[in-house]
């Protein structure tokens, strides 16, 4: 293919390079030994306007392993910092390279990033690499989240490197191509505050506003405008997680995306039996990032965000603190309001009153006592079928159900609302692990099959029930790992 054509096809832009140079280091991916495409997301390529890739199959493994830099790309590693489990630290892309930005047919800008692409100046002691297992896991769960209608980064490709990656055991290596609205994190702002000048911070704020919230670009106080917009996105995001039982697992500030996408799929997992204390991550010993704590961590992280913005909020720092505090204080009320709206939708209550909130709380309390499956309970209510387990036979639940029925005047509209909000299939942990175990041995069929089922989470599935039961004792032993 002639060179000029290729340039037209990729059409790379690099707005990030217009930021002050402290925010990145130009850096190429480190080539890999023997790249082989494991998965390529043709539909996503098409949606992004990268259709030409579907005709360039023989080039995919070179592009998406980092072995060939597409024309027009200026690869870079981004600098950022963050609070990890409460402690502040310098981070940055230690194993990722931003190839550049594209514009999709609808005019939306997106980042194309390679993850697992080798060491960078931010790698610290890491090897810059990623395992095939964890990159396929990110591919599967991020795509599932997208189809669940939850804002998320996407996965365009997984390419095996033909190299070994050493963790607790020897693994196959891989590079994931991640698509995101950007890779601006709360930690990018913390980095600017800690290591940059006030001008750097202002520039970053303006860049973020222009890129993600252009309608807020001319607000009187850009820092507060940005904070408020990010807060709303994060509230919506976390509430979506709570809707489907998603546990991010490592909600550090560097993993909180400014445009409100779910990012950095590490030890994430889905809750089966309802319990707000559910944690699967091996390193989260105190439940900081437990299912029911995500709302509070969101608040904590946004407080760190407000703190990073302070020098740009007002010259007088006392005044700045007052203004920022007022904005942060809006979180709880907004969150609670949105949370109940979401739960009422799950229950198909069309015109809830504030006092109906107690119905939500009562159901959840019963579900916790009876260890009821989160997904199945709402489906059973929606389909008016009895669920196995002690919840349905309890007198308490029968009384609750009667009250709930009384709130559903327009049954048809109620069921329609429930259908849109209660997934029929989620990436159950044991199915994810089964698909990945098979993939490790070279059998990608269960992985593809699961991907297909998860691409239609609110639709009907002939074998839907196959995806519901949880193997006994599975959850009590299940652990997920970070940074693999
Ligand atoms: P994460 O847990 O993926 O959010 O990563 C936290 C930080 O550790 C980021 O700065 C990553 O770039 C870095 N990191 C994670 N794994 C590696 C690795 N294998 N090599 C180098 N840096 C890494
Ligand atoms: Mg991270």
Outline:
With 484 residues, the chain is α+β, with helices and mostly antiparallel strands. It folds into 2 domains: 3-183, no CATH class; 184-484, no CATH class. The protein has helices at residues 3-10, 42-47, 57-63, 132-147, 186-195, 198-212, 222-244, 294-313, 317-346, 357-369, 374-383, 390-393, 395-406, 411-421, 429-440, 445-454, 474-477; strands spanning 24-26, 36-40, 76-78, 81-84, 87-90, 96-103, 109-115, 154-166, 170-180, 246-247, 269-270.
Task: Please give the share of residues in helix.
Answer: 40-55%
Question: What is the N-to-C order of secondary-structure elements (H for helix, E for strand)?
Answer: HEEHHEEEEEHEEHHHEEHHHHHHHHHH
Write out the distinct hetero groups bound to the structure: adenosine monophosphate, magnesium ion
Uncertain stretches of 5 or more adjacent residues: 1-7
Secondary structure elements and their pairing?
Elements: H1 3-10, E1 24-26, E2 36-40, H2 42-47, H3 57-63, E3 76-78, E4 81-84, E5 87-90, E6 96-103, E7 109-115, H4 132-147, E8 154-166, E9 170-180, H5 186-195, H6 198-212, H7 222-244, E10 246-247, E11 269-270, H8 294-313, H9 317-346, H10 357-369, H11 374-383, H12 390-393, H13 395-406, H14 411-421, H15 429-440, H16 445-454, H17 474-477
Helix pairs in contact: 4-15, 4-16, 5-8, 6-7, 7-8, 7-9, 8-9, 10-13, 15-16
Task: Provide the descriptors you would attach to this structure in a database record.
disordered N terminus; 44% helix; two-stranded antiparallel sheet; single chain; binds adenosine monophosphate; alpha+beta; five-stranded antiparallel sheet; 2 domains; binds magnesium ion; 484 residues; 17 helices
């Amino acid at each position: 293919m002639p060179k000029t054509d290729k340039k037209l096809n990729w059409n790379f832009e690099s707005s990030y390079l217009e930021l002050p140079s402290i925010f990145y280091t130009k850096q190429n991916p480190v080539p890999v030994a023997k790249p082989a495409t494991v998965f390529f997301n043709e539909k996503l390529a098409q949606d992004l306007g990268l259709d030409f890739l579907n005709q360039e199959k023989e080039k995919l493994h070179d592009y998406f392993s980092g072995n060939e830099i597409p024309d027009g790309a200026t690869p870079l590693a981004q600098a950022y910092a963050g609070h990890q489990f409460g402690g502040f630290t310098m981070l940055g892309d230690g194993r990722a390279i931003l190839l550049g930005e594209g514009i999709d047919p609808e005019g939306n800008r997106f980042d194309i990033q390679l993850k697992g692409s080798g060491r960078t100046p931010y790698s610290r002691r890491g090897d810059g690499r990623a395992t095939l297992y964890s990159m396929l896991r990110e591919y599967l769960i991020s795509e599932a989240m997208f189809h669940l209608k939850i804002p998320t980064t996407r996965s365009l490709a997984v390419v095996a490197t033909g190299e070994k990656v050493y963790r607790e055991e020897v693994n196959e290596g891989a590079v994931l191509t991640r698509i995101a609205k950007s890779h601006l994190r709360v930690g990018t702002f913390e980095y600017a505050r800690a290591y940059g000048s006030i001008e750097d911070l202002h520039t970053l704020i303006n860049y973020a506003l222009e890129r993600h919230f252009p309608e807020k670009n001319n607000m009187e106080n850009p820092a507060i405008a940005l904070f408020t917009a990010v807060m709303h996105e994060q509230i919506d995001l976390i509430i979506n997680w709570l809707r489907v039982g998603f546990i991010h697992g490592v909600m550090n500030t560097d993993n909180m995306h400014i445009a409100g996408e779910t990012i950095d799929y590490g030890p994430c997992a889905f809750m089966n039996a309802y319990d707000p204390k559910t944690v699967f991550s091996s390193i989260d010993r105190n439940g900081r990032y437990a299912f029911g704590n995500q709302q509070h961590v969101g608040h904590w992280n946004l407080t760190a965000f407000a703190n990073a913005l302070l020098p740009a909020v007002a010259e007088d720092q006392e005044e700045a603190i007052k203004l920022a505090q007022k904005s942060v204080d809006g979180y709880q009320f907004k969150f609670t309001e949105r949370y109940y709206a979401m739960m009422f939708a799950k229950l198909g209550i069309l015109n809830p009153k504030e006092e109906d909130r107690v119905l939500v709380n009562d159901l959840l309390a019963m579900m916790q006592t009876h260890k009821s499956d989160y997904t199945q309970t709402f489906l059973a209510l929606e389909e008016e079928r009895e669920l196995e387990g002690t919840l349905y036979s309890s007198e308490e639940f029968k009384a609750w159900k009667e009250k709930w029925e009384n709130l559903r005047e327009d049954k048809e509209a109620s069921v329609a609302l429930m259908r849109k909000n209660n997934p029929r299939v989620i990436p159950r942990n044991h199915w994810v692990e089964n698909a990945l175990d098979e993939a490790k041995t070279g059998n990608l069929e269960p992985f593809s099959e699961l991907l297909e089922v998860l691409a239609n989470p609110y639709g009907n599935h002939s074998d839907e029930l196959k995806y519901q039961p949880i193997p006994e004792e599975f959850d009590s032993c299940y652990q997920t790992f970070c940074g693999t």
